[in-house]
Amino acid sequence: MTSGIEGKVVAITGASSGIGEATALLLAERGAKVVLAARRSDRIEALAARIAGAGGEAVAVVTDVKRRADLSRLIATARERYGRLDVLVSNAGISPISALDDLRVEDWEAMVDVNIKGVLYGIAEALPVFREQGSGHFVHTLSTAGLVIVPTMAVYAGTKNAVRAISEGLRQEAGETLRVTTVSPGFIRTELAGSITDPDARNGIQTRMDKIAISPDAIARAIAFAIEQPAGVDVGEIVVRPTAQS
């Protein structure tokens, strides 16, 4: 991969809002060709139109990361439209947090399906493409919840730390031409709290976000920093949190 961002083909899951949307806008502004993936077709189609209206290149692909076939279609669309895939940003995630005593098993399963299996499906589809090309870059969105474990976040933190371990294993297996980056955001102004089914947990997180959360643009800049490095430079892990976050 050449240095810089211009001309690179970047697929982004969870692109309909928050960090994914901010990342798509920033990378497109810097000359990347972005492939937008999310379940909400209206959101990503509007975002693609916005990027095109500003002179950028974007295509929207309705994607549910719980389905491997959807990830396969996403990667295939990138290659059909632009001839290659340089970066896969696996950003889709949910956080229906709750105390373990609440036994919200369906929420646990949903987090495993989206936060872990969704990333694995992306790896399964993109890794052979990157091997064939001789270059490629995985970027995985984690969370500071995986760095400091607190009540109600055990399963969510577990999913993020599973991806942390998977990412490190992938990095070690990747060889000299593939790159792997993890980005751990702290409190960011996103819609993530909306996926919390427990009312008390949701209100607590939303209150905290309203007080100290920073713009998703901060994470977009971190992702751009990792992508724009020369091919021989692998930015392994980035943590971005509000200065007010303990």
UniProtKB/TrEMBL annotation:
Keywords: Oxidoreductase. The keyword Oxidoreductase applies. Pfam families: adh_short (PF00106). Belongs to the short-chain dehydrogenases/reductases (SDR) family. This is SDR family oxidoreductase. PROSITE patterns: ADH_SHORT (PS00061). The keyword S-adenosyl-L-methionine does not apply. InterPro entries: NAD(P)-bd_dom_sf (IPR036291), Sc_DH/Rdtase_CS (IPR020904), SDR_fam (IPR002347).
